[in-house]
Amino acid sequence: MTVSTLPPETVWKATLGELEMQMTRATFTTWLQGTRALSFAGDEFVVGVRNDFAKDWLENRLYDLIARTLAGVAERPVTVRFVVWSEEIIAPQTAMVSRNGRAEVVATAPAEVAAGRRDEGARDSTENGLNRRYTFSNFIVGANNRLAYAAALSVAENPGQTYNPLFIYGGVGLGKTHLLHAIGHRCRQDGYRVRYISAETFTNDLVMAIRTKQTPEFRERYRTVDVLLIDDIQFISGKEGTQDEFFHTFDDLHSYGKQVIISSDRSPKSLAALEERLLSRFEWGLTADVQPPDEETRRAILLAKAEDLNCYVPDNVIEFIAHNSRQNIRELEGALNKVMAYANLTSRPIDLELVNMALADTMRRPERISVEQIIDIVCRYYNVTADALISSSRKSTIAYPRQVAMYLARTETDASLPQIGAQMGPRDHTTVLHGSEKIKTLVDTDPQLRRDLLEIKAMLYERAAVITH
After folding, report:
1. Cα–Cα distance measured from residue 391 to residue 242, given in angstroms and rounded to the nearest whole number
2. What does the pLDDT look like over 280-298, one tens digit per residue?
3. Which of 382, 405, 403 is nearest to 394 (CA)?
4. CB of 259 within 8 A of CB of 141?
5. Which residues fall within 8 angstroms of residue 244, CB to CB, at 6 or more apart?
6. What confidence score (pLDDT) does residue 447 get?
7. Could you tell me the CATH superfamily of domain 3-91?
8. Which of 165, 341, 398, 454 could disulfide-link 260, Cβ–Cβ 3.0 to 4.6 Å?
9. For the chain, what are the domain ranges?
């Protein structure tokens, strides 16, 4: 099967997989989540969007990126046309399945689509902004996110009663948005009025309301809910008008016992460009962080994603992607989406050879890491100098980072103990062994150390990717 004979929805899904890796979660969710491929005739690809506002935004802000990515997937020049579509007119859905190890696309019967539309609780809602894919039942819990998950569940079961506000923070693509949507779905099922919004969309709505003199309607929309979930609050940094409006929205909701849940890519104390009065309110409730997932959690995420897509992925492929894709969940899922799309478009089985071809330009490879890079990143993370780290100092503030560096040099490089020791002093290989083994033992009992190691590894592989590209 060639690209030209594939259903438009399949081509669009492959394109979305590529686009998701090229833009922020907020941008992708706000403007591309829920779009549909309506037709692909000649060189014109028609995409259905929810409203005129989204149509204008995609045409004026994202057209070049979308057209270029779509052309790459379609393997020919493409003109993209966006149209507002009705939910009552939807092309048959497609699903990824596996037969004899080969990824294929099959159409879902129209009757099944109609049945899915009757399930109001399971579909996307343009009114409350929730995405049906993000629920507590499919959130993978690991050491990296256990506190945030427990807090989110507690808030969902008792909105306005336990942690208000709940502030969840962490790096890009680590599951913050998933938790916000999961809270929203649980509250909605219990009869609460819920609204999810990204801070970017909140800002755009406010600007539009001011332009059209509909500020009262804007405030009515956001201040009459029981649960407000706002994603990526760092977006309003430096935007005084938006901060003022959100401050009064927050105060209004909080004073009536309504629940507010906020996400950010950093902790409240690190949001220097936000007004102090907002920051103080963010700390009224509970602040919970999410960290990059460890390898075991990454495997679980990939297995769940493959199961969700009804696609068989061999264990060695899961292991390979989990080991080499270390940054965040979005990178993991984006890598798997790309592999599935590549298998589908080339009619090849999913195996390690195909994975290497599909991810050749994006996969981070451990062999690129050097002991020198580890020393540099560890020193930056613990705020010590390289001279101090390789010195003979036995101060705990120096010795501990040194042992962490030894541990990472052993686990993330192919360097021998003598080679590691030569770059850390020099030191005898038995000293390196002792230091690394001490950290290895602490990993099992020290949650803070586990978080430190995950953050250092994320910094390490991000830098390695920059250096080698």
Report:
1. 50
2. 999 899 999 998 888 888 8
3. 403
4. no
5. none
6. 76
7. DnaA, N-terminal domain (3.30.300.180)
8. 165
9. 3-91, 136-290, 367-468
Question: Which pTM does this prediction carry?
Answer: 0.54
Q: Is 106 helix (H, G, I), strand (E, B) or coil?
A: strand
Q: Yes or no: say if 18 and 69 are a contact pair by the CB < 8 Å rule.
A: yes
Average pLDDT for the chain? 81
Tell me the per-residue pLDDT of 323-370, one tens digit each, with 9 for 90 and over: 877 767 888 888 888 888 878 777 788 888 788 777 766 655 444 688
List beta partners, residue 417: none
- Cα–Cα distance for residue pair 58/66, rounded to 1 Å: 9
CATH number attached to the domain at 136-290: 3.40.50.300
Confidence of residue 316 (pLDDT cuts 50, 70, 90): confident
How high is the pLDDT of residue 26? Answer: 65
Half-sphere exposure of 235 (CA within 13 A, CB side): 20
Residue with tokens 């407000």: 228
Burial (CB count within 10 angstroms: exposed 0-12, middle 13-18, buried 19+), residue 385: exposed
Q: What is the rounded distance in angstroms from the CA atom of residue 347 to the CA atom of residue 459?
A: 36
pLDDT score of 328: 79
Long-range CB contacts (within 8 A, 24+) of 321-325? 321/355, 321/359, 322/295, 322/298, 323/295, 323/366, 324/363, 324/364, 324/365, 324/366, 325/298, 325/363, 325/364
Confidence at residue 3, expressed as pLDDT on a 0 to 100 scale: 52
Q: State pLDDT tens for residues 96-122.
A: 333 333 333 333 333 333 333 333 333
Q: Where are the alpha helices (DSSP H) in 166-214?
A: 176-189, 199-211
Q: What is the DSSP string of 40-65?
A: EETTEEEEEESSHHHHHHIIIIIHHH
Phi and psi at 242, nearest 5°, equal -65, -40
Query: At 168, which helix (H) or strand (E)?
Result: strand 166-170
> Which one-letter DSSP state was computed for residue 349?
B
